[in-house]
Amino acid sequence: MKKGVVLVVDDDKVVCDFIGCLLEDAGYEVYKASSGEEALSNLGGIEIVLTDLFMPDMNGLELASRIKAIDETIPVIVMTALPYPGWDTEALEKGAFSCLTKPFTLEEALSSVEEAFAWRRSLQAL
Fold it and tell me: How many C-alpha atoms does 52 have within 13 Å on its Cβ side?
């Protein structure tokens, strides 16, 4: 049985596939999108979103904000290889659940995803 359903959003296919494989190996069902618009059109059944910060059509902060407007119970984890001062605070203010700076370890990624699932389950238990 799968641990949960995760949507990975990154315009870099190699990164998207790599993160997807890591999560699949850890027991998650993974879907992938290469843009914010594609992600928004494929939210049905998604429990967690893991998105890149910098993408051409829509950045990860806007995506997090738009997902929260659609379904505030979907935690969004924002990741970036190009952090700038205060990016993580800004992401949290826009509705992100947590933030990861690339490169991150497998343990860091899985810990963030597991915390997001625990938070989502706690909301559903109310």
Answer: 25
Instruction: Please state, in angstroms and rounded to a whole number, the distance separating the CA atoms of residues 91 and 109.
Output: 17
pLDDT in tens, the chain (126 residues): 789 999 999 999 999 999 999 999 999 999 999 999 999 999 999 999 999 999 999 999 999 999 999 999 999 999 999 999 999 999 999 999 999 999 999 999 999 999 999 999 998 887
Q: What is the pTM of this model?
A: 0.95
Q: Is 46 helix (H, G, I), strand (E, B) or coil?
A: coil
Q: Which among 95, 75, 99, 97 has a CA at the least distance from the CA of 87? A: 99
Number of domains in the chain: 1
Report whether 22 contacts 106 (CB < 8 A): yes
State which residues form the domain around 22.
5-125
Instruction: Return the axis-axis angle of helices 106-125 and 13-25, rounded to nearest 10°.
Output: 70
